[in-house]
Amino acid sequence: MGNKALGARKRQLGAVNHINACSLGWLMCIFQVTFRAIHFLDGKVRDVHSRKHTICTERNIGRKSLVRTSAQFESPISPDLVTRAEMKGISSAFTTSIVIGCNRGIGLELCKQLHIRGDRVVGVCRKASDELKALGLWKVMENMDITVEEDTRRLGADNLGTVDNLWLNAGIGDGIEDSLVEGLNYGQILRSFETNAVGPLRCVQSFLPSLKRGSKVLLVTSRMGSVEDNTSGGSYGYRMSKAALNIVGKSLSLDLLHKGIAVLVLHPGFVKTDMTKLYWGEKGIISPATSAQEDLHYYMGMSIKRWMGFMEICRKFRTCCESYYLLPIGSCNCVANS
């Protein structure tokens, strides 16, 4: 009887342990589901807060919306629609904006729209175009080559005061059509690295004393720098240089975190510029003015708290007059802007 009782007791304890293990497993599952739900809802709340911030900003300047309808999508924001006085409502957080690479294309349009907002705009380029000179910017700095260390040092040494926004748009498309079969131009590949990746890093380092807590740095990248998105091959120099720029942005975002300086790496879209002239007939290409508007609107809608320490590589797909910002890496929220 003693052995039978002992066996029954062991079976009873085994059943209790099994029940406890199952209960613990269920509790862990419930905890994981709850944690993921809270994380998901937190992201939704952040997106709603960002949208509310954008709506309030738009109301403050007396416009119904900066996000255009499909009929308005390709129409640039003109001074007639948004006066300088109106733009001051959204320009209060901006003082000095520096655009590096601005004699044409996206950079020129950025200078134009930042100037309309009332920013003190400094345009930096190798040679100023007539269009750039006609804008009447606060300052235009010519004969600046970001591949030359002495030039970038002179940039930082110029007494510009605190730099609130540093837009690094300079870049080249050398080797964008290169082919492994036909032979690669390694000189072009090295030039692409020097201009598209090393040059922007030099500029940020030169301006570092002028970047204060709350300043923002924007690096213009390309989808072609994405490893995951590369489905067609080729373009070795351009792809490699933009991938390197993405790493520059990631490291900068971490290194500048303690200073309160935000870093954004942005793909501006499929834009009609001299670099893409071979593809002007393809569907989905947009004007520099449209790209600059969308980039500026997205840039303004992001708060420093959401930017700080994050890298956001934005791949922008445009279909049916909508733009989607997909953030494929890091811990950033996905943003859809239509």
TrEMBL record:
Coiled-coil spans in chain: none
Molecular function terms, GO-annotated: oxidoreductase activity, acting on the CH-OH group of donors, NAD or NADP as acceptor
Family matches, as Pfam families: adh_short (PF00106)
Record's protein name: Short-chain dehydrogenase reductase sdr
